Amino acid sequence: xxxxxxxxxxxxxxxxxxxxxxxxxxxxxxxxxxxxxxxxxxxxxxxxxxxxxxxxxxxxxxxxxxxxxxxxxxxxxxxxxxxxxxxxxxxxxxxxxxxxxxxxxxxxxxxxxxxxxxxxxxxxxxxxxxxxxxxxxxxxxxxxxxxxxxxxxxxxxxxxxxxxxxxxxxxxxxxxxxxxxxxxxxxxxxxxxxxxxxxxxxxxxxxxxxxxxxxxxxxxxxxxxxxxxxxxxxxxxxxxxxxxxxxxxxxxxxxxxxxxxxxxxxxxxxxxxxxxxxxxxxxxxxxxxxxxxxxxxxxxxxxxxxxxxxxxxxxxxxxxxxxxxxxxxxxxxxxxxxxxxxxxxxxxxxxxxxxxxxxxxxxxxxxxxxxxxxxx
Length: 376
Description:
By secondary structure, the chain is an alpha/beta fold. Helix content is about 35%, strand content about 15%. The chain has two domains: about 1-30 and about 325-375, Urease, subunit C, domain 1, CATH 2.30.40.10; about 35-315, TIM Barrel, CATH 3.20.20. It has 13 helices and twelve strands.
């Protein structure tokens, strides 16, 4: 490895030149490190404290409850977000797209914290920040705040349910796309709206994408609606989604419908996986920062029991190929497993996590080649 990239790959039978620095992985399996395509860092609760949730009847009740619960730990947000990042790193995640709550009440305080963490973790993790109006872009009058976040360095414009929350699909999307075009930013919209209402929203997103010339820069997260309508509707819509290079991001939910990713992929639609929730938070107590386990959940849910499809699952949790390539970033994970399929099945602890060739986490971090050099 040189300059953070893989420079040479030698066959196992070829002798290593004398004097070349070597670290013996002792039979560990090398996997590409992971990309969490959808995660919220600013919603984490302490893992050693139970914060009771009550049942909610609507998404608006959920919004209110989240506000109330997070207010009690507001002063600890930076600390808790950092703890979450450390957990993600320990699981092998070295890239993440983080959605950050922004609204008139909290202003840009959450976003300022995430900017600090993006800088602090820049050598460990590549981080994208999405300016996310959780309470609704129009509903909470958050357009000026998203604009300010984009000026400060947000990578993408977010949104949530243009129909169900903002109650005006076209006006919401018009604001989102105007901001994206003005700041040359990507778009990543939360879409929980069900059935044909959600499908209509995606159709309008595609219209705006085509009009703005924003091909390849738009993602729709969750998109439960695609798992609730007839497969024929999805086949037809997927053709246009592929044409506009729209990405679908799913957290592999088990409590709601999931987009039929096999149909989407068959049409060339890009599909990514995110954890969404990484631990205890206001939305669920069942979050998990481990993308390898999320990949297993996907394979299990879709009954991908054969070697080829189990290997394919890695392409949804990592942008890197399973096979090493000269010139590729040296971002990888070492684990005790027989092969990638075995690793997906057992989700072993991560022995070592590396970013640009530098060990950054894992149970063997203190035994890594960086620590060996320091001792010398």
